[in-house]
Amino acid sequence: MSDKSDYKSQLAEFRKELQGVKRLTNERVHLDTTSRQKEDPSLSYRRKKAEEGSELIVDGLSTSQGELLDPEEKVLFALPGVQLRLIKRMQAGHLGWDAGLDLHGYSVDNAREELYQFIQSCKKQGLRSLIIVHGKAYTEHGKPALLKTYVTEWLQQIDGVLAFCSAQPQDGGTGALYVLLKRDTNRP
Predict the structure, then answer these.
(1) Handedness of CA 133, 148, 24, 140 (dihedral sign)
(2) Hey, how many other C-beta atoms are within 10 angstroms of the C-beta on 143?
(3) Which of 179, 172, 166 is closest to 20 using CA atoms?
(4) For residues 150 and 165, what is the distance between their CA atoms, to the nearest angstrom?
(5) Angstrom distances, CA of residue 8 to CA of 20, 76, 81, 90
(6) % of the chain with per-residue pLDDT over 90
(7) 84-91 vs 2-17: helix crossing angle, rounded to 10
(8) Predicted TM-score of the model (pTM)
(9) CA atoms of 97 and 107, how far apart (whole Å)
């Protein structure tokens, strides 16, 4: 019985942590269950966006944006299968980070290119935990965070990104994201 009550208390604690977090939309793939190969969710997202045709795809990343995010809005994204314990540790800032990228002052096009190159470089180096600083767009009060919106969209499209969430205040708060990359099984 103690396992069940422990689970319930952990679930209640997790739900409390998620208060105020806005769910990001994630297009999901409905795979044929008879297929032996699983399709990468980021690949299906890129395919869907490419089929829309009215947008430009650069480095596999869409130039269109979703719903604009508020500068103070917390974000959380995780692919299915990422352990809850790992997500909670990431949200608490307990994973640390192996590398970081600061996108302050970048145009949207330059930020997209820098982000893509940075993630690819980190994947090649076998890094798993990153921090991306996008800023809060405080140029005008009440103005949405354009770069934050794009970065959250792009991270969902990049192959190998398992999860991301808003950083702790000491690391930039809602102006930064902790990012978790897939472990490279080809590395020793």
Answers:
(1) positive
(2) 13
(3) 166
(4) 14
(5) 21, 22, 20, 21
(6) 42
(7) 40
(8) 0.64
(9) 25
Question: CA 84 → CA 7, 17, 30, 81, distances in Å?
Answer: 12, 12, 23, 9
Q: For 66-109, how does the pLDDT look when each residue is reduced to its tens digit (9 = 90+)?
A: 677 777 889 999 999 999 999 999 999 999 899 999 998 888 88
Q: How far apart are CA 169 and CA 55, in angstroms?
A: 35
Cα(33)–Cα(154) distance, integer angstroms:
28
Query: Is the separation of the CB atoms in 121 and 157 below 8 Å?
Result: no
User: What tens digit of pLDDT does each residue of 1-18 get?
Assistant: 556 677 777 777 777 777
What's the average model confidence in pLDDT over 51-57? 48
The 10 Å Cβ neighbour count of residue 11 is 11
User: Within its chain, how far is the Cα of 73 from the centroid?
Assistant: 14
Q: Which two tokens stand for residue 172?
A: 């930039």
Q: Is the pLDDT of residue 135 over 60?
A: yes
Q: Where are the beta strands (DSSP E) in the chain?
A: 21-23, 57-58, 61-62, 74-78, 99-102, 129-133, 161-166, 176-181
Rounded to whole angstroms, the Cα distance separating 49 from 56 reads 9
